[in-house]
Amino acid sequence: MDLLLRVYERLRHALGGENWWQAESPWEVMVGAILAQQTTWQSVDRALRSLKAEGLLPPDALAHASLEHIETCVRPTGFYRSKARRLRLMAARVFEEAGTLETFLARPPGTLRRSLLAIEGVGEETADAILLYAAGYPAPVVDAYTRRILQRLGHPLPRGYEKAARQLREQLPDHVSDHRRFHAVMVILGKEFCRPTPRCAPCPLLDLCLHGQAVVADLPQTGL
To answer: Which CATH number fits domain 3-18+141-215: 3.40.640.10, 1.20.210.10, 1.10.1670.10, 2.60.40.10?
Structure first.
């Protein structure tokens, strides 16, 4: 079995990953994807609660809200001015291009992705997260966790987002649930074990990872 599939199967059993992105609606996924840039999910959760409390979460409310009002709500996530502007632009684009969120997300994946990438601040990773979690398309999400983990496993992804995404698409089952689960377990593993300074000894992939085995072998000498 290919290493990537072995990793995926192992982590499915060890870490789960079901329903990892606890959003209440596709639009909340899209808002969360913008807010999550360069911050923690705890901060995103605070900002989402604030937007809901102020009645600003629905796309029609965001599209017509003042930037100052939105900024106050999303301040916990950092870069709040640019994020507030991007949220309002994204909400406006939904209505300008499709009339409703459902119609906007129901377009072919290529069309939808191009539209998302045209929004200020929406890069390839954010666009693919929206395709995967909000629109329900099997789009691989190439993030820093996935790159770090596969690099340490001796299975590095190619440079360049499109090439890396193509490799994941070719080696993983082509189902929405599998791409969601794979992304989820990569994030969980990256946060809990495969950190910049890794916790290798308890990692469920230790027997597959020469990097981790070397780290563990050095522990008695280094005292780390």
So the answer is: 1.10.1670.10
